[in-house]
Amino acid sequence: MPTIRINSQQSTGQTPKALGLKLAWSKADETTIAQLLTRYPAERSRSALIPLLHLAQRRFGGWLSVDAMQLVAETLDLPYIRVYEVASFYTMFNLKPVGQHHLQVCGNCSCLIRGSDGILQVIEEELHLKPGQTSADGKFTVTEVECLGACVAAPMLQLSEADGAMHYVTNLDAAKTRALIRALQKDDEAALAKLVDTPPAASDPITPTKYAE
Amino acid sequence: MPKLTAQDLCFPNLHGQGDWGIKGYRARGGYEGLKELLTTPPAAHIQKLKDSALRGRGGAGFPTGMKWSFMPQPTPEKPLSKPSYLVCNADEGEPGTCKDRDILRYDPHTLVEGMVVGCYVLNAKVGYIYVRGEYYDESSRLVQAIEEARKAGFVGKNILGTGVDVELHVHLGAGAYICGEETALLESLEGKKGQPRLKPPFPAGFGLYGCPTTINNVETIAQAAVILKKPLEWWTRHGRPNNHGTKIFSISGSVNKPGNVEAPMSIPLRELIDDYCGGVIGGWDNLQAIIPGGSSTPMLNPEQASRVLMDFDALKAEGTGLGTAAVVVMNKDVDLLRVMTRIAAFYKHESCGQCTPCREGVGWVYRLMERLSRGEGSVDELDQLQALTKKIEGRTICAFADGAMWPVQGTLKHFRGLFEARIRAGGQ
Amino acid sequence: MTTAPTQKAPEFPPAPEGMVNVVIDGVHHIVPRTFTVMQACTQAEKEIPHFCYHERLSIAGNCRMCLVEVVGAPKPVASCHWPVAEGMKVNTQSQITIEARKGTMELLLANHPLDCPICDQGGECGLQDQAVAYGSDRSHFEEMKRAVDDKDIGSKIKTVMTRCIHCTRCVRFATEIAGVEEFGATGRGEQMQIGTYVEQALQSELAGNMIDLCPVGALTSRPYAYTARPWELKRASSVDVLDAISAPVFVDTRAGQVMRVLPQENDAINEEWLTDIARFSYDALSANRLTTPLIHGQPASWPEAFAAVQNILAKAEGKVGVVAGDQTSAETAFSLQQFAAQVLKTDYVTALPTGREGGLPFTLGMLLKEFDKAEAVLLLGCNPRREAPLLNVRLRRGVLKRGLKVYSVGAVADLTYRHTHLGDTVAALEDFKSDKPLHIIVGAQALNRSDAAALLAAASQRGTVHVLEESCGRITAQAMGLTASAADLAKQWQSGKLAALWLHGDDTLTAEELKAGEGSVIYVGTHHTRAAKAAEVCLPAAAWAEAPGLFMNAEARVQEAQAACAPPLQAKETWKIYRALSEDLGATLPWNTLAQLREYLAAAHPAFAPAQRNQPQAQPLTLPKTTGKLLTKKFTEAIPAYYLRTTYLQQSAWMHRMQAEQGTAHIQAQGKKVA
After folding, report:
1. Which of B304, C139, C336, C431 gives the lowest tally of CB atoms within 10 Å of its CB?
2. Which residues pair with C23 in a beta bridge?
C-alpha cells in the first residue's frame, strides 16, 4: 500500500517559474488528459475543465497562476476568461500560493458545536497562525472552511498537500491536533498515516491507475 | 422500535467493519439478482418504485418513481433522439450531512450497482457520479469499485450477457455547495461555473449536454436497486404511508455518540437520539434545539423534538423538513445564536452570485444576524430581518436562497428572546 | 360507479393554431405559444421593468426585476423566461407583483453606491428610472456597502464597478454578439466581479455598445466622461459615414459642439449596434480643422481664395483631375460633378481612391437582412470584421445559430467565428466548390488590386457577387457617376497630363505623389491633412455632422443626415462653396437653396428622391465580363490599423489611443479559430 507522500519539493509559495517548473504538461500528463477526455462526448471536452484545473494545480506548485490557467485553456481550446471564471468560482482552486501543508479546519455548525474553536486555538498556539495566514517558511497555511461532510466525527480538518493529496483528520482534540502538527513538521509519514481517516488511495479520479488486487 | 438487523439494512457495511471491496460486497449479497433486474422491462421497475414511495434522499424528498417516469422511454417506432443520462449527486455539502461519505468509502458497490440498475431503467448508456472535490480518498475508492465491477462484468458492454451497456464515470467537483443543486451540478459537469439554470426546461427534458437527464442522490440510487431486488413489502413495512423504507440519519452535535445510523423512516426523533446516539449531552432536559434535516431546515424546539417522527410529512407538518436527515443537536451549553450566525455565514460564502436577491440579500442577512446576535442593534431590526428574509425567499432562480432564509426564520420564530436579551444587555 | 366531476366550460374559444389565450390584468389576449410572459405583457402594452433581459441577447433571468404574479404559481415568476400557457392569468399590478419589484429594487440598491451626482449615467439610467417607478421610497440597509475595484479595460470604456448590478449584459454581448470572449464574471456570490480578470483593453471593434447596454453607470464612455448631462443635449439624426453600412446615428450636441454619437435602432441596418470608430471619433470634428481659406498655407479671405482658384484654373486649361473623398454626400457629389462639367470643363471626375479602377459595381446588390438567410458565404479579399463590423455581426450570428458556412480567400484574419480559410491567393478559388448557393462578398483587399475587375468576373462564375465598398461616401459619389478610373491618377499627375488636382476631402495620394506633380492642388476639405498641406489653395468645408447630407449605403439605401451643429468659423457647407465659386467663375450653378439643389439632384438621380428615402434599391449587380489576367500575388490585409483607417480618423486623439491598445499577438493567441 502506498504511503502518504509528504512532498517537500513543491509549493513553498513561489511562482511556478521561480521554482523552475516549466509550465507544460509532461508526457504522463498528456496520457492522463487523453484518458480524461474519453469520459465525455467528443464535442464536450469542456467537461474536462475542472479535472484539468485540479491537475494543473497539483503540477504547478499547488496553486493556479495565470500561466497555469492559460495552459489549461489552450489544452481545451477555451478562451482564457472562461477558465478564469471557473477557477475563481470554486473554493478548492487556489489563485494565490498556499503553504505546503494546508490545514483546512471546518467551522460550520456541527464542528462549531463540538469545539472547532479549540482546534483553531491549538493550531494558533503551535504554529502562530490564524485562519487565512501562511507561515513565513511557506510550510503551513491555515484556513477555516465550510462543511466537509464529516459532521459525525467533528471537529475535524482536511489536510491538503501541494501535490494534490488530501486527507481528512477527524475526531480531533487538542492532543490529536498537536500530534498532527508534529508529524507534519517532522515529515513523519508513519505518524501521519496513523492520524488520517482513510488510508490513502491507490488511485484517484483524476489520474486513475490500475488497482492491484 | 427494535433496531434493524443486518438483513434489514440497505447499507450493512456503513461503519466500515467489513471489506468495502467487491469481495465483501458480494459476500453480503451484492450483485446477486442483477441479471434479473436488467432483463425486466423498465416500466415494471418504475411502477415498483412508485409503489415503494421511495423519496429522494438529497434534500427535496421528491418521489423517485415519479421522477424516473419523466424520462423518455424508447419504443420500436420511436427510438430516443438524444442519449439519456443518469447523474448521481454525490456533492454532499449540506452542513450536518455526512452519510454519502460513508457510503462511498465503506460500501461504494451499493452505489455502483444502483447506478447500473438506474442507467438501465432510464435508458442511459452513460452514468456520471459527481463527487464533491474534497472527497479525495472516498472518490478514489469509488473509482476502484467501478474497476472491480468492470472486471467482474457488472459494468461495461453487454453486462452479464443481457445486452445492456452501462459505462460509469466519476467526476470531481472543486468546492462549491451550490453544485449540489441539480442544474448547477449539470453546469459544473459541463465545465462551467456551478450557476443553476432557469427552470423550465427541466433536466428530464433538457439536462446534461441538453439531453434528458435524471439527477439523484447517492443513497436514493443505492436504495432504488435494493428495493427492486427485494419484495415490495420488505421496504414498505418501515415508515408511514408515503414515507416508507429505511434511511441513514446523520446525528451530530451535542449527543454522546454522534454517528450515521440506518434506521426505519418515521422513527421518533427522541428514540433516534436516545437509543442510537447515547442521548443528548447532559440529558434530554438539557436540550435547546434540534435541526432535523441539515442546515437549510428550520430548527425544532424541545417540545416539538420530543414528539416528532422523522419522516418527510411529519416534519413538514411542523413547518420544517426531513431534508438530508442530518440531525444537528444543540444543547443548552451551545451558543445557539452563534451557531445560526455561522450558518448564515456559510450561505453568504456559498451563494453563486447569479441573481440579485441571493447575491445581495444573503450577505445582508448574515450581517444582520452577526450584529443582532451580538446585541448590537434594536428590537425593531428583528422584524426587519424577518421582513428581509421574505423579500428574498421565493424570488430567486433556485432554492438556495430559500434554504438560507429558513434557518433564520426558524431562529426568529423559536429564539427571538435570545436576540432580545442580548440587545437589552447592550451588545457584547 | 362514480360520476365524472363537472368540467368547467373553457373560458375562451380555442385560440388559432400556434397561439394561446392569456389574461393580463384582467384583459384577454391571444399570443403566440412560443412567447414568454414578458413578451405577452409587452404585446398587451404592460411595461415590465427589467435589467438583465435584452431582446438581442440570450435570456439570463438573474436580475429578478421582471417578477410578476401568475395566478396559481406558488411564487412570482421571472417573466423574461417563463413560457405562456393556455389560460394563464398574469397580474402586473397586484400586491404580489408590486412587493416583488420593491424587494428586488431594495436589494439592488443595498450595495449600490448611489453616487448619481458624479455618475455619467444620471438622467438616462435604468436603475434611476426603475427605482422611481417601481421601487420603495426608503431603504432599510444600514450595513457597510461593499466596494469593488475599478477595472482598466482600455480607453473606450470607463468602469466604476461598484455600481455594477451584475446583470451580465456586457458579458453576454461580448460572448454572443461581438464574439470576443474576454469579458466574464469571476468569483462567487457577493465576491462576483465583472471584468477581464487579467487587465487588458477590450479587443472588439464593437466594445462601445456595452456602454449602451449597461443599465447603470458601471460602464460609461470614457471620451464622454464628465463632459455633459443628457438633458443639456440637443439631438440630431444622422448616419455613420465611416463605412459602407451607414448605420443611422444620433448626434448629441451642446452649445454647438458634438458631445457624443449614439446608434439608432434599425433592424434592417445595424440592429442597435454601432462601430467604435463611429462612436468615439467625434473629437476629430474639432481637431486640426481647416477653419479659414488658406493660400500657400496662409489664412486668406474667401474672395482672395476664389481669386487664387481662378488663377490656377486659368493656367490648367481644363486639364483638371477632380477626386472626391470617402465622406462625400450626395449634395457634394452632385455639386462637384456639375461644377466639374460646367465650370472646370473636365471629365476626369472620380470618387475612387488613387490606384483604383472605375466603372466597377460598388454596392452589395442585396439587403443586409438577406444575409440572415444565406447558407454559404465566400469572403473574397474581404475582412468584414474591419471593413463592416455590422455586417460581420450578421455573419457571426448565421455561423453560430444557422450553420452558415463562411469561406475566405484573402489574408488570414480572426473574424470571431469559425470559417474555412481556403488560401491567400486566387489559386485557392480554383478547386473550391460550395454545395449551397454561394454569396461572394468582395472587399477592400480585392478592390484595391489592379486585377479587381478580373476578380469580380471570376467570382461571378461561382456565385452571387456583392461588393463591399470602403464607405457610404464613395458609394454615394459613384452612384452619381463619379466613376472615372483613378488607376493611374498619380502617374497622370506626375506626367503633367493633369495640370491641376481638385481634391475634395480625398487624401489617398501620398505627400511624395502630390509633390511629384508640376501643377497646383486645390483642396476642399475639413482637416489640415497632407493633401491640404500640399495644396496651393484650401477651402474649408463642413464636416459630416455640420451639414445636411444624403448618403447611399451598400444596400443602395439613401438616408438623410441632419446637421447637428454649424461648421467652425469660416468653413462652409460644401454645396454653398461650389455654388458661390461657380458664380464667381461665371458659370453659375442653377440652384440657390438646398431644397432646389435636391430637386435637381433627384431629377438626375431618382434614387435620391424623397420618396425613395430609406427604400433600399438593392439590385443584383452587373458584373464586368473582363478576360483580364488574375494576379498570383498574395492578398494582404487592407486595414492594418482599424481605428486609423482613414485620414479623418487619424485626426482623432481617441482613435490613436484605441489603436495603441490593440494587440495582434493577443488576438492571435485567442482567436485561433481559423480552421
Report:
1. C431
2. C28, C89
Q: From the list A66, A81, A88, which residue is nearest C187 (CB)?
A: A88
C624-654 residue pLDDT tens: 777 788 999 999 999 999 999 999 999 999 9
Closest C-alpha among C360, C245, C442 to residue C622:
C360
Q: Is C196 on the interface with A (CB under 8 A)?
A: yes
Please report the DSSP string for C538-573 in residue order.
Answer: EEEB--GGGS-EEEE-TTS-EEEEPP-SPPPTT-B-
Cell of B76: 420500436
Cis before A155 (ω within 30): yes
SS3 A133: strand
d(CA C73, CA C303): 79
Longest dimension (CA), chain B: 75
C321 has which bridge partners? C501
Could you give the CA distance from residue C41 to residue C53 in angstroms, rounded to a whole number?
Answer: 14
**B259 Cβ under 8 Å from any chain A Cβ:** yes
Mutate to test the interface with A, among C180, C190, C198 (most CBs of A within 10 A): C198
Q: Cα torsion for B129, B132, B133, B135, to the nearest 10°?
A: -90
CA distance A79 to chain C (A): 6
pLDDT for the residue A20: 67
Task: Provide CB contacts within 8 A for B422, sequence distance 6+.
Answer: B337, B372, B373, B374, B375, B428
CA C598 – CA C613 distance, rounded (Å): 12
**In B, which residues are within 8 Å of A208 by CB distance?**
143, 147
Q: Could you read off the pLDDT of C185-240 as tens digits, one per residue?
A: 999 999 999 998 888 889 999 999 999 999 999 999 999 999 999 999 999 999 99
Coil/strand/helix, residue C309: helix
- Tell me which amino acid residue B38 is: L
Tell me the shortest Cα–Cα distance from A48 to chain B, in angstroms.
Answer: 6
Cell of C660: 495603441
Which grid cell is C458?
Answer: 471570376
Question: Could you give the count of Cα atoms lying within 13 Å of A210 in the half-sphere of its Cβ?
Answer: 3
DSSP string, C66-98: TEEEETT-SS-EETTTPBP-TTEEEESSSHHHH
Q: What is the mean pLDDT of residues B265-289?
A: 97
**Is B388's Cβ below 8 Å from some Cβ in C?**
yes
Q: Which residue has the cell 423574461?
A: C80
Whether residue B66 contacts residue B105, with contact meaning beta carbons closer than 8 Å, is answered with no
B185 is written with which cell numbers? Answer: 451540478
**Residues 6 or more apart in contact with residue C7 via CB below 8 angstroms:** none
**Beta carbons of B107 and B14 less than 8 angstroms apart:** yes
| pLDDT, tens digit, 9 for 90 and up, residues C329-388 | 999 999 999 999 999 999 899 999 999 988 899 999 999 999 999 999 999 999 999 999
Interface confidence, given as ipTM, is: 0.94
Q: Touching C: which chains, 3+ CB pairs < 8 A? A: A, B
Q: What are phi and psi of A102, to 5 degrees?
A: -100, 110
* Among B201, B221, B205, residue whose Cα is nearest residue B213: B205
**Dihedral, CA of residue B89, residue B94, residue B97 and residue B99, to nearest 10:** 10
Q: What values do phi and psi take at C213, rounded to 5?
A: -70, -35
